[in-house]
Design goal:
The protein is built from no helices and two strands. The protein is mostly loops.
Amino acid sequence: MITLAPLDGANLSEANLSEANLSNSSLVGVKLNKANLSRATLLKVNMFEAMMSEADLSGADLSKSNLISAILGGTKLNGANLSQSTLYQAYLIRTNLSGANLSEASLHTTVALLT
């Protein structure tokens, strides 16, 4: 199994990470604006204050991940698995969550205007 170095603060905007496995990674403050993470595995990832505006996370597995204060404006999360994730104070304006699994997710004080 490959262990990734912490990617905290990295600028991965517009990167193609479709189907990537970044499970158990630290992505604190990472910039993933307009990145393609469709069908990616992001199980137990720390994405505190991550910026993912207009990213494609459709079908991604983000279960048990930390998305506290994450910016997800205009992000595609349709069909994504967000079960048991923490989205405390996350920003979900114009975010597509159709078909997403939010079971047992923590959404306290999350700002949301969904499409």
